């Protein structure tokens, strides 16, 4: 079944987060993508509110910690007002990240994000990613 025009628009908007915002570093586009009352549910970092919350707790830490950050979209499923993305995060830990000083180590992690769109913006997201893998790969402590 072919995607409808609203589904294609929703997919384009959801893909802008990993591609245009996270990979390209376009912080100004955050306000265009997220609704003012946006909520992200993320068990690794807690609940995030609004475009500023996304900028402060997701965008800035990752862009500061990994200057060559790349978030590649591997799969997309769009239906109605929902879009699911499966992504792969990669980069070099060359800046401070969540209290961890730069290690110069490469990072690769997988994740999923379910987006609910309303009024042409992302209203809500549920995010799961390999947070333990990120911590292990950015840590200087030996792993088991």
UniProtKB/TrEMBL annotation:
Superkingdom to which the source organism belongs: Archaea
Chain segments annotated as coiled-coil in the UniProt record: none
InterPro entries to which the protein is assigned, alphabetical: Cyclase_SnoaL-like (IPR009959), NTF2-like_dom_sf (IPR032710)
Protein name per its UniProtKB record: Ester cyclase
Annotated source species: Halomarina rubra
């Amino acid at each position: 079944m072919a995607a409808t025009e609203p589904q294609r628009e929703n997919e384009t908007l959801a893909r802008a987060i990993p591609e245009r915002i996270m990979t390209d570093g376009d912080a100004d586009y955050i306000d265009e993508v997220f609704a003012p009352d946006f909520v992200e549910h993320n068990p690794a970092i807690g609940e995030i509110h609004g475009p500023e919350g996304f900028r402060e707790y997701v965008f800035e830490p990752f862009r500061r910690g990994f200057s060559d950050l790349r978030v590649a979209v591997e799969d997309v499923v769009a239906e109605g007002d929902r879009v699911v993305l499966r992504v792969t995060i990669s980069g070099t830990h060359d800046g401070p990240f969540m209290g961890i000083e730069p290690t110069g180590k490469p990072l690769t992690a997988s994740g999923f994000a379910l987006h609910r769109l309303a009024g042409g913006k992302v209203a809500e997201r549920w995010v799961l990613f390999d947070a333990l893998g990120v911590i292990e790969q950015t840590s200087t402590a030996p792993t088991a």
